[in-house]
Amino acid sequence: MDKRQTPAHLRLVAEAVDGFISAFRVFMAFHDSVNIRQHGFGPAVIPKAAVSAGQCDTMAHAVDLAAGRAQEASSLAEMKIEVPGFGQVDPITAWGTIRQPQPMLGSDDVFTGSNQIRGKLEQMILQAEIYVLPQVSAASMHPLVWSAAERLWRGEHYRQAVTNAAEALASHIKTLTGRNDVSETAIWQETFAEGAPLPGKPRLRWPGDPNARYVKTMNVGMRFFSSGAQMTIRNSAAHGVDEMSEQEAIERLATLSLLARWVDQCELHQ
Question: Which helix (H) or strand (E) holds 85?
């Protein structure tokens, strides 16, 4: 999905349109509208009595800023106003013409057009929420995994980022079990090995009744899954030559993140 069409981005644009409408409403509270169809040679708005030129400029500046923030709304919503003699006009970015002689737009055009754009964006948000695909964010990975990978990931060194994350996780297990006498693959195999813990060789076990089928399944699965992840993810990343794509790397980080969260849930048996 185009990032500009995601619900999150569309909401930001819709909020920007709300900001524009609010700023324009304040501006119009200090101005009177002029019928440009009858008096088309002067501005479409004139300041109310006792409103200084400086005040008008300050309020117009606020509307200009809001219009800048909402400038992509019309193109996203594919909505413009048909103005005789001018064609298709974006009522948000062209709002300032109401202060000029022979204006393209009247104040009602700006209100109507921006409200229609806002309504179209609401519809687009609802549609995007229906069709949006699940998103995997590197920053939402397990903190241990992401902290080890972040610097390299942001530099687009994806292979090294995966290597760092896998090594950090294996190092965590060595610290947790107090074992620095075995290799990274062996630490996983021995930590989840069958049998009771031995002196200097603690075990990690899934919590619950060890005789329960689910607990047995998790313990056996962790034995193979953890060492398998070490061999296929860490080793292939560390010894590979070609750079990984971002997609390949995010899938590997997600696997390491899942393993790290399962480790967090395990109990250490001395």
Answer: none
pLDDT confidence band for 234 (50 / 70 / 90): confident
Q: What is the sign of the dihedral through the CA atoms of 63, 67, 73 and 75?
A: positive
Q: Please report the sign of the dihedral spanned by the C-alpha atoms of residue 154, residue 158, residue 163, residue 169.
A: positive
Instruction: Give per-residue pLDDT as tens, 70-88.
Output: 999 999 999 998 888 889 9
Element (H, E) at 135: none
Ranges of each domain in the chain: 3-131, 138-269
- pTM to 2 decimals? 0.56
Map residue 102 onto helix, strand or coil: coil
Report the alpha-carbon angle 14-18-20, nearest 5: 115
Q: Would you say 15 and 118 are in contact if contact means Cβ atoms under 8 Å apart?
A: no
- Pick the closest to residue 75 from 117, 105, 116 (CA basis): 117
